[in-house]
Amino acid sequence: MLEKIDRVTPVDVLMQSAPVIPVLVVEDAAHAVPLAQALVAGGMPVLEITLRSSAALEAIRRIAQEVPAAIVGAGTVLNPAQFAAAQLAGARFIIAPGTTEALYASAKDTGLPFIPAVATPSEIMRGLEHGFARFKFFPAESMGGIAALKSFGGPFPDARFCPTGGVTEANLASYAALPNVFAVGGSWLAPKDKVAGGDWAAITALAQRAVKAAQDAKRK
Ligand code: 3PG
Description:
This protein has 10 helices and 9 strands. It has helices at residues 10-15, 32-41, 56-66, 80-89, 101-110, 121-129, 145-153, 172-176, 192-196, 200-219; strands spanning 20-24, 46-50, 71-75, 94-95, 114-115, 117-118, 134-137, 160-163, 184-186. A 4-stranded parallel beta sheet has the order 3-2-1-9. The protein has a 3-stranded parallel beta sheet with strand order 6-7-8. A two-stranded parallel ribbon has the order 4-5. Helix 2 (32-41) runs parallel beside helix 10 (200-219). It binds 3-phosphoglyceric acid.
């Protein structure tokens, strides 16, 4: 029998101000603070720094220390060693592109908010067994997108999802409008050329548009 989860989770508390979560690959730690400031100014306080670059942990450290309005977390966390390193750097939440027993154990040991990714009913059931009911749905577009999320709503009424992977400015409102979607995420919010060129105003504008679109969709 699966545990019924109807409480407010630590993830809900963190994400309440964030209908959109930028998925960030920071190649140069010097970009971390202005990038975070630009996104926060655009209404996106929750930032996922993926551990896909050698600068990622330093980026988390700098944002945690220098951008108090940001809630910085680590993404693309694949194993307990990365989980621990991200926490040490100042990550306030951890996102994984999938799930492993070892990562569930890290989450329980540390108490750090953890958003594992799922793409199938069995993975959702495993997460619920572990007491988790807030998931990343990855890769959203290639694993069934909106239709899949609607289908998950039947058997898993307590589960909430943050779709990422193929979410863009064009389709984010359709995702955000779903009742079992707590946020949407994606990398489109920090285009490489804008980051490299230091065009922070353009990134703030992108963030503002996305937040407004998500909020409007949720209100409908
Ligand atoms: C992720 O880790 O969430 C994805 O790489 C983001 O996918 P996107 O680049 O399609 O937004």
